[in-house]
Predict the structure of DUF4292 domain-containing protein.
Amino acid sequence: MKNWIIVLLLLFAVTSCKTRNAAKKSRNALKTDSTFVLENDQNPKDVNEPIRNKLPFFEHVIPPVQFEQIKINSKVNVESGSFIPTLDATIYIEKDKKVWMNLQAFIITVARGIATPEGIKGQDKTSKTYIDSDFDYLNNLLNVNFIDYKSLEKILLGRTFVKINDSQFTLTQNSQGFKMASNTNQKIETEERTREYKIVLNYDTNYDLLNVNLKDVLSPDELDVSYSNWEEINGIRLPRNVKIIIKGSKSSQILLENTKFDFSRMDTPYSVPSSYKKIEIK
């Protein structure tokens, strides 16, 4: 698989380390789709006593972003063991309908992808290959179970997309903001094995998502996704910087610098030439 396809998949499935979220077991009145973000050794200090009434906190972090469409221009840097130049990305999100992405290197389009509620498609123009996958296939491939279209939108916009609940997480507050930490290991079941994770989510004092820590308790597998330089644009809080670190048998890092946000509609062409070859993701 070419590097451009890898980048598309990493950006579409931004939290794609070998993890599966135990979201299906987290259903109650206070459940939410929440974002994983983690920066090593950046948990808030001097944590106060646990907050017992978590409802006000959930009322701030649960509500979805209200928008019709958002266009994001980004600079993308990927470190995955092989050279990938800095990429210019255009990400266009049409709420509840599609996420379209175009990647350029040296002003030349090298890859394009589109995600809809039905699945993900991507093409590498340098190798004339393409992929066509539903979310189930992508989740199985990446050993996760939480990626669907709605969670993808929230990931890109820095919103909470992992389901967390009142009984299995402890909420504390200090001068740096809020910390939501699992108080029991979250069991993640796949066909091959059951794994257990510790999950920590950190928020600023104004409830902007800062980071999430997802760590396998029995292996080195760990996921870091951090958001910073939040700004309010057209009444919407959006992050300027996103950092994704995937640790495990193979480690990779993605840095997105969101340079411009636009709320106007745009064309999102996507078609695969008949000469392109479909590839299986391995």
In short: The first strand starts at residue 69 and ends at 79. The chain has four helices and 15 strands. Helices lie at 3-12, 55-61, 135-142, 149-157. Residues 1 and 176 are 42 Å apart (CA to CA).
